[in-house]
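Lecture notes, structural biology module. Today: joint structure prediction for complexes of two components.
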Amino acid sequence: MNKVLIIDDDEELCELVSEYLSVEGFDADSVNDGETGLARALSGDYEMAILDVMLPKMDGFEVLRNLRKESKLPVIMLTARGDDMERIVGLEIGADDYLAKPFNPRELAARLRAILRRTAEPTNSEQVGEVIELDHVSISSSSRLATLDGDELNLTSVEFELLFELLRNAGKVVRKEDLSETVLDRKLSPFDRSLDMHISNLRKKLGNRDDGSVRIKTIRSVGYIYTVV
Amino acid sequence: MKLFLKIFLWFLAALALMFFVIVFVTRVFQVQPTVSRWERSAKNQLTFYKHATEQIEAGTGDEGVNEFLTRLKAYGYINDVALYDDKGNALFGTVVDHYSEATAKARESGEAAVIDRENEATFGAVPLTLKNGRTGFLIIQWEQMRIPPLFFDSWVGMLRLAGLLISAILFCALLAAYLTSPIRKLRRAAQRLAAGELNTRVKPQLPRRRDELADLARDFDEMAERIESLITSQERLTRDVSHELRSPLARMNVALELAKQRSGPELQPLLSRIEGESERLNEMISRILTLSKLESGAFDEFRGESLDLTEVVREVAADADFEAKAKGKAVDLVWSDECTIVGNENLLRSAIENVVRNAVKYTDDGTTVRVSVIADNGNAKIQIGDRGGGVPESELTNLFIPFYRLGAARDRKSGGTGLGLAIARRAVMAHKGQISARNVSGGLEVEIVLNRTNNGETAGH
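The predicted structure, tokenised, for the full assembly:
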């Protein structure tokens, strides 16, 4: 059973989600405020966390910020629907994924599974131990470590996989549809901009090359390309 | 006419009128009596000099008269003295001006006569009898009596007049400004309030004033206070209600999923129906929240960034096309000039998305929604046209009102939240753009006009 921590102040919702997730094969615990949530998330007992933004004592962003200082525990943020700012801020601080609340529980389970797949096991057998080094960037799928000029890049699991996919296909255009399926484990749906948002955060963390050229270029309406010098 | 100008001119006119009235009254009641007193005094002097001359002549003869008259002439205020006999021969002096007029008057009345005309020297004659029985006239010309004219006589007078005029204008201008400046402030405040700046207040701008205008300012502030609290509480209510609705909705979604897991196949269609309705409720709530956020002006001061409008439209059209294909419809970007604008991408994207999806919803099956981006002078025009039969002309402007339901066939096609176009309008307005709708060849065309920042006129398909 995969242990999941739910941090949300709505107790009834927590109960229902726990019940649903147990049917789906997860073992979910819940806490109802930010401080306890942070302590439990840091305890090392869990494989991932579901974190609501609106929380008493310490809001979700604060919890995530503190959590990320010490832990890479995968986190799905529950944001208010229609609030782009919450989404953007959440991903910037280091959430692995987000889900607009009220959410579809099937979607939640699917996202959790995608995260598990990304963190627990390598995406497919041929990538085991694969290390890509290119353009001062080094990325190792076995140790799940990405570095730039030897310094570790603090990437979320989604960003890590995105970078891995782009580097693997460096110099070639990777279609958005493919990225969505390989990295996010879901079909690209219209009006979904989460891929763009993850890419934009990844770009910020990577920065431009010394000569000012961009590493990851957008190919309009098609996808992205990791440029090769 | 501006109130300032009105007050200024009226007060200036009033001051001028007052000034002329004062000058006139002074002339009538002060100068005129002085003049008539002067005439009497001149007559008395003449009579006095006549007696003196007669007695001196009786005593010391012509020589005495000559000496007396010479002395008289030397007096400062007398200009000239003459003595004539009744045949007109000068016995002393040579005054000729008005001689006949004065003597005629004196002869007629038998006593001293004075001719006193404005701006002329006073002239007087008195008949007298000399010792040998001859009769004659003593004639005196006084120095011109000086009533100092108020103005126009010298540069000092001009200066005085100019000073008076300048101070009058200054005074009137100050007065007009004093009266109109609070009114101007009130007006500006009212405009700001109308534009949505609900925290506008006037009284702090008029700290020391205590009059009816200050009262008006206070009343205005009270009104603004009330409007502000009403609107903010209404906005907060909308926001809070929508927000609170989400918690039960979230629980319902999870419970529904559990129910789906545990129930037999006969209940699945109904549960899916409930799921669909809950999704719609959810959509409506997020749109109400978006709209209320837009209405509250939270986006009015967004950080504008340069963005590629054409690319945004292209993406939205591609997404919408993908969605439309499932319903046997299509979205086609038929014209795309390159346009960059300054704005908030998320906001604009949602505006365009709302309009395009709306068009997809209402366009007839098998038809295509045509989208174009047109660079037009300094503007970027986005036109989205459907083939859904259009709406009655009278309803065109109502399309952008939240929850407005058209009476016509469009109403039947359910699924809308009634907020898409309202959100689009607010988002476009936040970019100082315009959005309008019109009927074009069997469909509705919505046009969004935004300020363009690039100059490229490259057209492409």
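Point to remember: Chain A touches chain B through 24 residues (CB under 8 Å).
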